[in-house]
Amino acid sequence: MTTRKPIAVATNDSPQSQAAVLWAARRAERAGVPLVILHVVDDRWVAEPYPWIGVLEEAGDRLLQTAAGRVRDAFPITITTRLLTGSIGGSLAKYSGKTSMLVIGSGTGHLGGSLADRALQVAASAKVPVAVVGTQELGGRSGVVVGVDGSKEATQAVAFAAAEADREDDELTVVYAISAPDRVADAGLSSASLAELITEEERLVLAETVAGLKEDYPGLRVNQVLETERGPVEALVDAALHARMLVVGSRGRGAIKRLLLGSTAHGVLKHLPCPTVITRIQAVKNKV
Question: Tell me, what's the pLDDT at 258?
Answer without folding.
Answer: 33
